[in-house]
Task: inverse folding
């Protein structure tokens, strides 16, 4: 199995955790990622320390709070494929985030180094810009949860919906060099969900120009792919819907990327 593929635990631990990847686990410096599946009535708490944290409510409803703010009965979708962006709780460093599940709840906990610049806030579905990107079999829908024009110290967070038979993160691009203004260094995770967990799969390739890294990964529902460097396109076979949650962070909060020159010509067709 690829070292870039992280499979969830078969059953949640006592805290509800099914995936936990720290920067040390991933062999990089910035992005941490965790997934929790909570039963109604179960609680989650996390001290942020020197991190900023975005808790994405993938499915279910919850009460949420930080040291100074609280929000009751947030979240409304029962599947990531419901026609709505997620609710997300953004929390800065030196704070605490807590959630109490009002229904069965799945959350993604996205972390990166923080500076304490911004106050905790709730990002509602109405705050999330939805955009179509690409064309034809390259088209996908992007939910901009925490894009470049929204305040954060390090984190980028996006939800991506790839229709059946389509490609996304395509043409292939990379962001693994500190070479601004042309390219920024950003680590990235892809948390994949499908609308048919027993049958569906996606394909993600991660490769560099010199092919020192060149892996083609079969990804199933609830699995995580690490992208430490290189190009990283995704293919969704016909017959199924594909969702993934992207998290990125690096030393500078700018998203500048380089397209694979072998496939960049496809942009001219759009």
Result:
């Amino acid at each position: 199995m690829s070292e870039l593929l992280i499979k969830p635990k078969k059953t949640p631990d006592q805290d509800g955790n099914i995936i936990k990847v720290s920067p040390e686990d991933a062999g990089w410096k910035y992005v941490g990622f965790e997934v929790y599946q909570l039963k109604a009535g179960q609680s989650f708490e996390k001290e942020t320390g020197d991190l900023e944290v975005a808790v994405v409510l993938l499915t279910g409803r919850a009460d949420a709070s930080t040291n100074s703010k609280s929000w009751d009965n947030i979240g409304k979708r029962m599947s990531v494929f419901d026609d709505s962006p997620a609710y997300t709780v953004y929390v800065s460093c030196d704070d605490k985030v807590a959630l109490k599940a009002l229904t069965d709840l799945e959350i993604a906990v996205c972390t990166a180094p923080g500076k304490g610049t911004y106050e905790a806030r709730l990002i509602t579905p109405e705050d999330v810009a939805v955009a179509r990107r690409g064309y034809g079999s390259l088209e996908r829908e992007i939910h901009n949860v925490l894009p470049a024009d929204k305040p954060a110290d390090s984190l980028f967070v996006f939800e991506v919906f790839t229709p059946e038979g389509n490609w996304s993160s395509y043409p292939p691009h990379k962001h693994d060099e500190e070479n601004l203004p042309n390219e920024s260094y950003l680590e990235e995770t892809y948390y994949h969900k499908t609308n048919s967990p027993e049958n569906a799969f996606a394909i993600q390739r991660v490769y560099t120009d010199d092919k020192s890294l060149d892996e083609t990964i079969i990804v199933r529902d609830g699995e995580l792919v690490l992208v430490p460097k290189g190009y990283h396109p995704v293919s969704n076979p016909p017959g199924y819907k594909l969702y993934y949650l992207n998290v990125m962070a690096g030393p500078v909060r700018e998203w500048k990327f380089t397209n694979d020159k072998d496939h960049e010509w496809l942009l001219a067709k759009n």
